[in-house]
Amino acid sequence: MKKMAGGRRQEADCPAAVGRADQPPSGLRRSAEALRAKAEALRYDSVLTAVAQTFRSALARALMVMLLCLGAASAAFVPSSHLLIVVGLAGDPEHGELFKKWGTSLAQTATEKLAVPRENVTLLSDAGATRDEITKAFAALASKAGPDDAVFIVLFGHGTFAGNVAKFNLPGPDMTPKDFEPLLDRLKSKRVVFVNTASASGPFVDALSGPGRVIVAATRNGDEKFATLFGGPFVEAFSTEAADADRDGRVSILEAFDFAKRAVAATYQREGLLPTEHSILDDNGDHQGSMEPGRQAKDGQSAAVLSLGSMRQQALPADEKVRALYVERSQIEQRIDALKLLKSGMDPEKYAAELERLATELALKSRQIRDAEGKGK
Q1: Higher-pLDDT residue of 360, 331
Q2: Taking a C-beta distance cutoff of 8 angstroms, is the pair 35, 41 a contact?
C-alpha cells in the first residue's frame, strides 16, 4: 500500500485487487446471473400457469354453454313415430272387409295403446286409397318426419304379379315397387319400415331394400298369389303381450314378424293345408329377404329395436321438473335404440362400452325420477 496525502490509501499493483471497486468478483457475478435466470424462469412459469388457468376456465365456460345449448335443444325435441296405413283393393268383398278391419285396428292400437299421436297416423281406404292420395301422404311424411323419427308404412290388400312386375292393387292405377321407391327416397327419416301384407308382395323386398330400411313382405316371391293371412296376426302382435318376447313392453317389428309367422303356420297346420305364403324380412340393405330373421342373424338386428311404441305408456306428471326428467329418460332410451341400430357396423368393444354408459345413464335418470316423486326411500 502507498500512503497518499490526506491519509487516503491507494491500492498497490496487487493482482488480487485489479478492477473497479463497484464490480464483484467473477464467481459472485456468475451466482447473481444464475439467480436472475431462475427468477426469470419462475416469472415465465407463473405467466404460463396463469395463461393455462385462464384458458381452462374459458374452455370450461364454453363447453358448459355448449352443453346447455345442446341440452335445451334435446329437451325440445323427442323423436316420434309416424304411421301411414293403406287399405287397397281386395279380390272379393269378404276380404275387403277383413283388410279394412286390419287397417282400422292398427290405427286404433297405435293411437290408443301405443301413444302414437293421432296427427301422426294416416289411414287411407276405399276411394281415398288412390295413387294420388298415397303420393300426397308421403309428401306430408317427408315434410313432417325428422331424421330421427321412425316412419312406418303398412299396406293391406290384394297384390298381383305378371310380366315379372309386382303390383299393389288400388282404385285407379296400381302401384309397383318402382312407384314407391321415389316416395321412400324423399323421406328424411333414417328409420323407415315398409310392410306389404298383400299377396305376391315378395318382389317389393328386393326393389325397396336399402340402408335404414326394414322391408317386410307376406310372401317370399311373386308366385305366391293367394290371399294372405299374415296381416291379421301382424296387427294383433302390437296389442298382445304374447308377442313381446323380451318382455320390455314394446313389440318390435321383429317380434311382430315372428308372432305373425307362427300364427300363419299354426293356421295352415290346423286346417291341414300346405302353406301358400312365406313371409320374409330384410333390414341389412342387401335386397335379399330372410325367412328366419333374428337378433344375431343376417337380417333382423334393426327390426329388433324398432317398434311403434310402448304398451306401458303412462301420463306425464304435472310437475314441470319431474316431467322434464321423464322426457330426458325417453331421450336416453331413444339413444340406446339408435345405438343398437348401429351395432353391426361398430367395433364390439366400443359398442359395449357405449351401451354400458347409456344403460348407466338411464339407471341414474330413473333414480332421479323416483327421488323426485318421493319413491326413492
Answers
A1: 360
A2: no
pLDDT value, residue 68: 35
C-beta separation of 86 from 134 below 8 A: yes
Q: Could you tell me which residues come within 8 angstroms of residue 332 by beta carbon, excluding any fewer than 6 positions away?
A: 358, 361, 362, 365
Sorted by where each begins, the domain ranges of the chain are: 78-310, 320-372
Query: Angle at CA 333, nearest 5°, toward 327 and 339?
Result: 140
Burial label, 190 (beta-carbon count in 10 A; 0-12, 13-18, 19+): middle
Amino acid at the residue 69:
C
User: Cβ contacts of residue 52 below 8 Å, gap of 6+?
Assistant: none
Q: What is the CATH number of domain 78-310?
A: 3.40.50.1460
pLDDT tens, residue by residue, 247-291? 988 999 999 999 999 999 999 998 899 999 999 999 999 999 999
Name the nearest CA neighbour of 79 among 336, 366, 284. 336
Name the more confident of 272 and 333: 272
Cβ(249)–Cβ(256) below 8 Å = no
CA-to-CA separations, 221 to 53, 173, 322, in angstroms, rounded = 68, 22, 51
User: pTM of this prediction?
Assistant: 0.70
- As a whole number, the mean pLDDT across the chain is 82
